[in-house]
Design brief:
The chain has 14 helices and 15 strands. By secondary structure, the protein is α/β, with parallel strands linked by helices. Helix 11 links the parallel strand 14 and strand 15.
Length: 384
């Protein structure tokens, strides 16, 4: 089987989609002929180290030829050009949704004017809201983003198979025949250090510093705890355009001495900071469709505290604590509960690792994709 995987961003870029696609392509390489096509420049990265072919920034004519040669096309996201070309070539196309591009013009399901989770304006037909949401980028650009969402959705609906990494996202996308395949992470040993055993008690945030990640809520929760006489250390690992604003916010809240903005760190340093931490907090306001950080930390036996009702809560299940998005006091109460109940923290760490082993192993993801591909190849239904 000749499989072409198209992903807009890829190695050496760092991100959840890039990591998932790299793991999937590596796992499939011994079972099929795999070619990854991307718009990402190599940037000094040696593609020869990978067990599959990588083609970067192809011209449209070259992309057409590669799509025509493939037996199956896997699109990591509903990218409009390869979807359209695959439809014209009547190819068997699988679309895996790594975001909200088929249901939201900005792809984040985040309402920019109020900096809050979007309730689904596009799917509800409230298109004026969609246009206002992205007007900050210019009205012409906003109209273009809105129109392209219709096109992406039309072509995605005509693919052979839709895949989503959570059941929650499957429900949001609202396309027929969508299948849930959880993302997978490398199986790794547990820390061997029980959660909450460091002094001072340490809470960790891992991720980009952008508005959709909700780090402001976490800072406010630390300040809320401080007012109650409860102190802990917050380590913020990651970088992004919101960093300066968040540092200023920590100063205004009077918690500068309790918060360390560490920037991007090597994996070894990240592991050292997370080992024995009370919990890892993911206070996202929107944009999450799975949460690789959650699965990776659960695999290490660490406790997760996440926003409820969406993808992160599905990944964590009964192995973590949840709170309403943007509710700093509710997040503070979750952290206070862990501070007061050391046995609960230990129990959640054990549960989290068991859940990761049951549902989020990398090999599970690879096997499920291969089974889906084989079904599509044997399906006599309509072409893309």
């Amino acid at each position: 089987m000749r499989i072409l995987i198209y992903v807009h961003d890829f190695l050496p870029s760092v991100g959840g989609v890039e990591n998932v696609v790299a793991a999937l392509a590596s796992g499939l390489a011994g079972k099929a002929q795999v070619r990854v096509v991307t718009q990402q420049a190599a940037g000094g990265f040696d593609d020869g180290l990978l067990p599959y072919e990588v083609v970067r920034q192809p011209a449209v004519a070259h992309l057409w030829r590669m799509l025509r040669e493939a037996d199956l096309i896997h699109l990591a996201g509903p990218s409009l050009l390869p979807m359209a070309l695959g439809w014209l070539l009547r190819k068997k196309v699988v679309v895996e949704h790594h975001g909200f591009q088929a249901v939201c013009p900005n792809g984040q399901l985040f309402y920019e004017p109020t900096q809050t989770p979007c309730p689904g304006h596009f799917m509800a037909g409230r298109h004026g809201k969609c246009l206002r949401c992205n007007a900050g980028a210019g009205w012409l650009r906003s109209v273009r983003m809105w129109l392209l969402t219709f096109a992406r959705r039309w072509f995605a609906a005509r693919s052979r198979l839709q895949i989503a990494p959570t059941q929650w996202l499957s429900g949001v996308v609202q396309l027929n025949g969508i299948q849930t395949i959880y993302h997978g992470v490398r199986e790794r040993p547990a820390d061997g250090v029980a959660p909450g055993t460091t002094e001072p008690k340490r809470v960790v945030y891992l991720g980009r510093l952008v508005s959709t990640k909700g780090v402001s809520t976490l800072l406010a929760a630390v300040a809320w705890l401080r007012q109650r006489g409860r102190k802990l250390r917050l380590e913020v690992i990651g970088d992004g355009r919101e960093r300066l604003r968040l540092e200023a916010s920590a100063k205004e809240l009077g918690i500068t001495e309790q918060v360390g903005f560490r920037g991007r760190l090597p994996e070894q340093e990240v592991e050292a900071i997370c080992a024995g931490a009370l919990c890892v907090v993911m206070p996202s306001l929107g944009g999450e469709v799975f949460g690789l950080v959650a699965a990776e930390q659960m695999m290490r036996g660490r406790v997760l505290v996440v926003t409820k009702g969406e993808a992160l809560a599905e990944v964590v299940g009964e192995a973590g604590l949840v709170f309403p998005a943007g509710d700093a006091a509710a997040l503070g109460r979750c952290l206070e509960r862990l501070l007061d109940q050391s046995e609960l923290a230990k129990e959640l760490g054990v549960r989290g690792r068991a859940r990761a082993l049951d549902f989020f192993r990398e090999q599970h993801m690879i096997d499920a994709h291969l089974a889906a591909y084989r079904k599509v190849m044997g399906d006599g239904g309509r072409p893309c």
